Amino acid sequence: MNVIIPMAGTGSRLRPITPTTPKPLIKLSGKTIIYRIIHELTTYTELKKIGFILNDKNIELETSLKKTISKDFNSTIKVYFFYQKKPEGTAHAIYCAKKLLKGKLLIVFSDTLFFLKKPFYIKQFDDVDGAIFVKEVKDPSSYGVVKLNKIGIIKSFIEKPNKPISNLAIIGVYYFKNAENLKDEISNIISKKIIEKNEYQLTTALRNLMKLGDKFKTVNVDNWLDCGTPQNLLATNKYLLKRQKKDNSSLSNKKNYIIEPVYLGKNIKIKNSKIGPYVSIEDNSVIENSSLKNTIVQSNVTIKNANLNKSIVGKFTDYNPMNKSIILGPFSKFRKK
Length: 337
Description:
Distance between the termini: 57 Å
Number of strands: 24
Order of helices and strands: EEEHEHEHEEEEEEHHEHEEEEEEEEEEEE
Number of helices: 6
Helix content: 10-25%
CATH topology of the largest domain: Spore Coat Polysaccharide Biosynthesis Protein SpsA, Chain A
Strand content: 25-35%
CATH superfamily of the largest domain: Spore Coat Polysaccharide Biosynthesis Protein SpsA, Chain A
Strand order of the largest sheet: 5-4-1-6-11-8-12-7
Structural class: alpha/beta
Radius of gyration: 22 Å
Largest sheet: 8 strands, mixed
């Protein structure tokens, strides 16, 4: 199985966190987003090659991604980097990795964490040309959705329907049995300049493949977690903390009060503080005389005399003033005199 992970976006909705910490490398409950994506994939298929699509060459990011693959997964997995220097759409981004558009392929967008209702077996899709991962949603008007025929084959793709045509939202994960077909169709829409919403869209290629006779089924996911905004990042962190089995209750005492679920990284110092629920604190951070709940604290942070809720604190931040909700970028210093 080859995997393509588009991550050429700038993460603008997560500023000021993302300029120095690319979105896929943000840690939630001790693990990066990209680690969690790849870990989920390895639970149901063997990965052969992974291609990351970036907006430009980034030595630090590329080195970190290679290290994650070789150290945490399998050193035999080949890692490639491709570059989409202009934002020309999802189909164009994927075509930048045309070297990997062959054989069995998974495409997974990098701000999507998902968990399946039941195991995903490649053989169950031998009778079709691919599968689109979907999640049932209450309000489909904000999503691209699929509509099925009576035997469960996708018959149409609808972008942000005004009418309740279908509640099966496309989550940004796709499986292709023969990726060469996708390669040819994307090449076709680019050469003919078939543009939707000023970009080359993957859904355009999918519709055209269906017209040519390709058949696609759906894979229903149990949970779909978006990491694209501060609010969604906090909600995802909360979900992951609920799933963890780590118990920090032994750290509670007369001076510190831990309310689970909480994740505490290595070399954490807590003094006269109330932590939790739904708090992640990454390595080498110090919390003193503070109350934190529903908050993400990145590594090497010092927080004193703070009252934080629904907050994200970037790495190497030194934060002191009393406040209720704040998002601080990395290397910030914000103090009351």
